[in-house]
């Protein structure tokens, strides 16, 4: 936990690496994940950097890997997933050459098989369609007719003898077309021939593969009978326009039978070749799938290494690469060890070394977390990343966040549901960590937050004595009935009043007395209790936030801010709202039913809200007869003093720091005579910039002062959401019990068991869906707002930038999420 109090101390390091050992050294640094490298070649175009050719080689290998992966998806072959222990390291230069050759060989082989497979499939499809044409046109021809039909007859239009011989004879064109295009195709043929084409069709049974999309479609065989060579050319053009395949079809029955035999033989040969090609393709893909995951990781690591090497600058001699990067101080030995391992692996004669250099640049922010604290730190980082070495609210959020949530969600039953759900996620976290579903990962990432919220809800539910809107009588009620039987059974008595002096004989040891569950004024009592409790928690939470600013001031050595900012803010908050909290405790302690002084009885207890309003407005209110306006002697004078002191704190906050900074500035010497000529024109001459700086300082301090004074009131009122949501949650739970579950108890026979069984399902579903999920999400968001706005605004700047080290693990995880 100590690591979470502040971000890690960072050092800017300069690395000196020999070019021969650079690859192996960066690979070791990538495995350690401790260095955030800086780009020393920002002015150099990406295409002009030293290792641009190596990066292009990696891009080419990635392209080949994607091609192989797409081919695996087409054949539904899954790649085996590698565990963290099975992941390969970055390849050495010899492995790079072998890997590149293997990928090139695999890609070329798959491309050749894909091209051959496409050609073979097209031939098989055409042979199958030709067979369909020959079989389905059998009924279109008759050998007994006197006509001589030939689809392949070649005629010479200039030969009058042939023209006279063929006059009155018909020719035909046979082919296959998609069924959805046939009717438009038929109309087009009718138009171009003016009705002089006789068209017949026969649908092919089953689905055929589409040439364009590869999807199964319905197709039909057609035969168009016509007369004349010119009409034949028109028909073929229309077939080409409608993507209809035209096939040769003899008119003689014997020739068709012979042709069908030949086609069947060729189809059998094609099936054999296609099966052998598919087996060979499957073997190649299965072999590639075993190594593809390793190849992909190796290429990604190799590309990341060369990308980082492009950040380095060669020295003047060109015999050394110089790089810079941020390193956490605790990881400096790790980085030094990685440099030594890299030099040893590459057998470099000169070892790589590292120098820590001083800089005024703001380092990145890095907070070490584990699986427990990571969720809470993410809540803080969502608001803004902490400035370097700024106090980290994440450490305290681990307790304050689930506690304030539980104040609004105080029910032992609902808290137990959260604990059970979070415990299941934690028990199965190794199994569920591999799930990449977005909504599930939100709950899984916050499993420890949910666990603490549930545990704290169990505690607050015990204090509220609330379990699914019912109370538990663990220690025995501290109230007793002193009325006789006739008074209790008298129907004219609508209410029986119990006074603490007469009916209360002990204090309930822990939480609410269960007798309040039956009281008619339960809501009024709980309203007052929870409202005051929310103000108390709110003032303490804000006061803690203001005190955290002192830690920042001491660390950044802004000691003057302690006296000119922190002290006025604390005094302002304590004298107003801290005093209001004091009045709450004083009222609880002093006013009692067990007293002989009428002024100290509960009926004479003044309203704290009215007292506070009169305190701010310097007003008064007439008390009831026998009562006093104030709680103790001299309270009026004390309140006036508190208000005056609080108001005096405002000018201290507004003017104190700017005036102090102005007094500490060195006095300026008079400018030389020639200086005004060199000054640019401006309303303030040579002092314009200084006046602007002073003005900005006053304006900035004025904004902060106004914001703090106004937010002190608004933020205190904002904590009333603790009371409002707690009350709403309790009432919704009670409504669900009375309006749903209690209806199952109206039957006193065997039907009651069935009714309770059915109604319990509805009640349980509504409880989980409304009270746990929706109300829980509402309480979570309100708690988040209380931390972001009311608590963290008192001390948290959040102007840092994240430490993003060069890490193979992070690179592979990001690529996995993108995929």
TrEMBL record:
* GO BP, one annotated term: vacuolar acidification
Q: Where in the cell is it found?
A: Membrane
Q: Name one GO cellular component term.
A: vacuolar proton-transporting V-type ATPase, V0 domain
- Quote one Gene Ontology molecular function term: proton-transporting ATPase activity, rotational mechanism
The UniProt keywords, alphabetically, are: Coiled coil, Hydrogen ion transport, Ion transport, Membrane, Transmembrane, Transmembrane helix, Transport
Bilayer topology reads: Multi-pass membrane protein
Enumerate the transmembrane spans.
403-427, 439-464, 535-554, 566-588, 600-620, 641-660, 749-774
Please name the Pfam families in this protein's record.
V_ATPase_I
Location, primary (coarse class): membrane
Q: Which residues form a coiled coil?
A: 96-123
Show the InterPro entries listed in the entry.
V-ATPase_116kDa_su (IPR002490), V-type_ATPase_116kDa_su_euka (IPR026028)
Which family does the record claim for this protein?
Belongs to the V-ATPase 116 kDa subunit family.
Function according to Swiss-Prot or TrEMBL: Essential component of the vacuolar proton pump (V-ATPase), a multimeric enzyme that catalyzes the translocation of protons across the membranes. Required for assembly and activity of the V-ATPase.
Protein name (database record)? V-type proton ATPase subunit a
Q: Which organism is it from?
A: Drosophila rubida
Q: What is the lineage of its organism?
A: Eukaryota, Metazoa, Ecdysozoa, Arthropoda, Hexapoda
């Amino acid at each position: 936990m100590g690591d979470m109090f502040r971000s890690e101390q960072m050092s800017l390091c300069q690395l000196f690496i020999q070019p021969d050992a650079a690859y192996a050294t960066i690979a070791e640094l990538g495995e350690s994940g401790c260095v955030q490298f800086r780009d020393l070649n920002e002015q150099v175009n990406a295409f002009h950097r030293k290792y641009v050719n190596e990066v292009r080689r990696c891009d080419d290998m990635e392209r080949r890997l994607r091609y192989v992966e797409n081919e695996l998806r087409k054949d539904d072959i899954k790649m085996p997933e590698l565990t963290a222990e099975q992941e390969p390291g970055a390849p050495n230069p010899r492995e790079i050459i072998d890997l590149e050759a293997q990928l090139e060989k695999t890609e070329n082989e798959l491309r050749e098989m894909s091209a051959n497979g496409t050609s073979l499939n097209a031939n098989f499809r055409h042979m199958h369609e030709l067979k369909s044409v020959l079989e389905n046109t059998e009924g279109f021809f008759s050998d007994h007719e006197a006509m001589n039909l030939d689809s392949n007859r070649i005629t010479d239009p200039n030969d009058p003898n042939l023209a006279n011989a063929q006059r009155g004879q018909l020719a035909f064109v046979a082919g296959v077309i998609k069924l959805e295009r046939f009717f438009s195709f038929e109309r087009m043929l009718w138009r171009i021939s003016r009705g002089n084409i006789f068209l017949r069709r026969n649908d092919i049974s089953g689905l055929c593969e589409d040439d364009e999309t590869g999807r199964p479609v319905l197709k039909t065989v057609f035969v168009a009978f016509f007369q004349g060579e010119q009409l034949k050319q028109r028909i073929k053009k229309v077939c080409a326009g409608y993507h209809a395949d035209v096939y040769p079809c003899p008119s003689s029955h014997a020739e068709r039978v012979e042709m069908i035999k030949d086609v069947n033989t060729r189809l059998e040969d094609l099936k054999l070749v296609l099966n052998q090609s598919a087996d060979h393709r499957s073997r190649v893909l299965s072999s590639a799938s075993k190594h593809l995951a390793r190849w992909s990781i190796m290429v990604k690591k190799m590309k990341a290494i060369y990308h980082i090497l492009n950040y380095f600058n060669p020295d003047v001699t060109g015999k050394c690469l110089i790089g810079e990067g941020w390193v956490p101080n605790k990881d400096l030995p790790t980085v030094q060890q990685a440099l030594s391992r890299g030099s040893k692996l590459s057998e470099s004669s000169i070892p790589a070394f590292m120098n820590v250099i001083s800089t005024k640049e703001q380092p990145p922010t890095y907070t070490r977390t584990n699986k427990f604290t990571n969720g809470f730190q993410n809540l803080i980082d969502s608001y803004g990343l902490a400035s370097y070495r700024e106090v980290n609210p994440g450490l305290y959020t681990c307790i304050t966040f689930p506690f304030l949530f539980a104040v609004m969600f105080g029910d032992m039953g609902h808290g137990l549901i959260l604990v059970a759900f979070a415990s299941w996620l934690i028990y199965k976290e190794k199994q569920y960590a591999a799930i990449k579903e977005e909504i599930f990962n939100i709950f899984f990432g916050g499993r420890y937050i949910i666990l603490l919220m549930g545990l704290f809800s169990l505690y607050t539910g015990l204090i509220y004595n609330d379990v699914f809107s019912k109370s538990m009588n663990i220690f025995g009620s501290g109230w007793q009935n002193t009325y006789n039987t006739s008074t209790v059974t008298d129907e004219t008595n609508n209410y029986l009043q119990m006074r603490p002096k007469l009916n209360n004989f002990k204090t309930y040891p822990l939480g609410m007395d269960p007798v309040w569950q039956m009281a008619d004024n339960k809501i009024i009592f709980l309203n007052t209790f929870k409202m005051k409790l929310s103000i108390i928690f709110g003032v303490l939470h804000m006061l803690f936030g203001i005190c955290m600013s002192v830690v920042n001031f001491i660390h950044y050595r802004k000691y003057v801010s302690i006296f000119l900012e922190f002290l006025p803010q604390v005094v302002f908050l304590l004298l107003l709202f801290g005093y209001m909290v004091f009045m709450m405790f004083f009222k609880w302690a002093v006013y009692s039913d067990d007293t002989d002084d009428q002024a100290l009885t509960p009926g004479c207890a003044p309203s704290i809200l009215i007292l506070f309003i009169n305190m701010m407005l310097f007003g008064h209110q007439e008390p009831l007869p026998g009562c006093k306006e104030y709680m103790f002697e001299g309270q009026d004078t004390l309140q006036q003093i508190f208000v005056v002191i609080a108001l005096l704190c405002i000018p201290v906050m507004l003017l104190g720091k700017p005036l102090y900074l102005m007094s500490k500035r060195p006095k300026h010497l008079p400018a030389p005579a020639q200086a005004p000529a060199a000054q640019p024109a401006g309303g303030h001459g040579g002092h314009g910039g200084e006046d602007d700086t002073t003005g900005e300082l006053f304006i900035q301090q004025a904004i902060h002062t106004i914001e703090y004074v106004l937010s002190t009131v608004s933020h205190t009122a904002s904590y009333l959401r603790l009371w409002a949501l707690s009350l709403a949650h309790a009432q919704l739970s009670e409504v669900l019990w009375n309006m749903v579950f209690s209806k199952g108890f109206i039957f006193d026979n065997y039907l009651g068991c069935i009714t309770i069984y059915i109604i319990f399902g509805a009640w349980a579903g509504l409880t989980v869906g409304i009270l746990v999920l929706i109300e829980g999400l509402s309480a979570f968001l309100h708690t988040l707002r209380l931390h972001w706005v009311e608590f963290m605004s008192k001390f948290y700047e959040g102007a840092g930038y994240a430490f993003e080290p060069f890490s193979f693990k992070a690179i592979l995880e990001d690529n996995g999420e993108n995929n």
